C-alpha cells in the first residue's frame, strides 16, 4: 500500500510540474505558481521558531459535527536536557521537540501517552517530493503499540481557509493502522492551515480561523 501511495504521489508531482509549464492549463486544486513555490520552499528550510503565546484557532468538523480547537504554546521546558514546546489543546498538554516532532501528552501534569522516538510530522527542509518513514512505539495506559508510518511532501498548493489565503506545502501521512492524514503547512503562520484525517468511514477536518503570534524581539 505504501509503495502505491509513493508512486501515485510521485506522479502527482510530475503532473503538477507540467501544469506549471503550461500557461493555458486550468488550475487543478489551486496549484501554486513556480515563483511562490520557490518562496514557500525557501521559507521552509528549517523548523519554525515557536514562542510561548503563539496561538492558532481552528474550525473543526468531525463527521457532521462542528466545533473549534485552540492550540497554544504555553512554555518551553527542558526535559532530559533537551528543550520541548509545551502546547495546550483543551485540557491536554502536548510535547513537541523543536523540530515539531510529537512526543506525547499529559493531563494535569500526568503523562498519559508517549511516542518513542517522537513522531516526525515534519522533516526539514520541506520540499515537494521529500519522503521519510517512522518506526517507533506508542504507549498509553492500554499498552504499547509498534508504529510504522510513511510521509511524503506531495506538492506546493495555494489554500484558502477562513484565516485567509496561504502558500503551503502539502504533506501526506499514512500509517499501518489505516490512518491517512493530509495537512498543509504554511510558513507564514509557522504551522498547518488545514488538516484532514481519515480512517475507514471516519473523517475529521481542521481549518485555520485565526493566528496570533507572540511578540518577537
In words, what does this structure look like?
The chain is mainly β. It has a domain at 2-48 and 56-69 and 123-212: YmcC-like fold. Helix content is 13%, strand content 57%. It has helices spanning 2-21, 34-42, and strands at residues 55-62, 65-79, 82-89, 92-97, 101-107, 110-120, 131-140, 143-161, 164-175, 180-186, 191-199, 202-212. Strands 1-2-3-4-5-6-7-8-9-10-11-12 form a twelve-stranded antiparallel β-barrel. A hairpin with a 2-residue loop joins strand 7 (131-140) and strand 8. The N and C termini lie far apart (47 Å). 27% of the residues are buried.
TL;DR of this structure?
This protein has helices at residues 2-21, 34-42; strands at residues 55-62, 65-79, 82-89, 92-97, 101-107, 110-120, 131-140, 143-161, 164-175, 180-186, 191-199, 202-212. The chain is mainly β.
Amino acid at each position: 500500500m505504501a509503495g502505491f501511495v509513493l508512486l501515485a504521489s510521485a506522479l502527482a508531482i510530475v503532473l503538477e510540474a507540467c501544469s506549471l509549464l503550461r500557461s493555458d492549463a486550468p488550475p487543478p486544486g489551486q496549484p501554486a505558481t513556480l515563483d511562490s513555490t520557490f518562496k514557500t520552499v525557501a521559507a521552509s528550510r528549517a523548523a519554525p521558531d515557536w514562542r510561548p503565546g503563539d496561538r492558532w484557532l481552528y474550525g473543526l468538523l468531525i463527521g457532521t459535527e462542528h466545533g473549534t480547537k485552540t492550540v497554544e504554546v504555553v512554555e518551553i521546558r527542558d526535559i532530559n536536557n533537551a528543550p520541548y514546546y509545551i502546547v495546550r489543546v483543551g485540557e491536554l498538554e502536548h510535547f513537541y521537540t523543536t523540530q515539531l516532532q510529537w512526543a506525547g501528552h499529559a493531563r494535569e501534569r500526568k503523562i498519559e501517552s508517549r511516542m518513542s522516538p517522537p513522531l516526525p510530522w515534519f522533516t526539514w527542509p520541506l520540499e515537494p517530493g521529500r519522503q521519510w518513514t517512522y518506526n517507533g512505539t506508542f504507549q498509553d495506559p492500554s499498552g504499547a503499540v509498534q508504529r510504522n508510518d510513511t510521509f511524503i511532501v506531495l506538492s506546493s498548493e495555494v489554500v484558502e481557509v477562513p484565516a485567509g489565503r496561504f502558500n503551503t506545502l502539502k504533506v501526506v501521512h499514512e500509517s499501518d493502522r489505516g490512518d491517512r492524514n493530509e495537512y498543509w503547512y504554511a510558513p507564514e503562520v509557522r504551522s498547518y492551515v488545514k488538516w484532514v484525517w481519515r480512517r475507514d468511514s471516519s473523517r475529521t477536518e481542521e481549518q485555520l480561523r485565526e493566528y496570533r503570534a507572540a511578540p518577537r524581539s
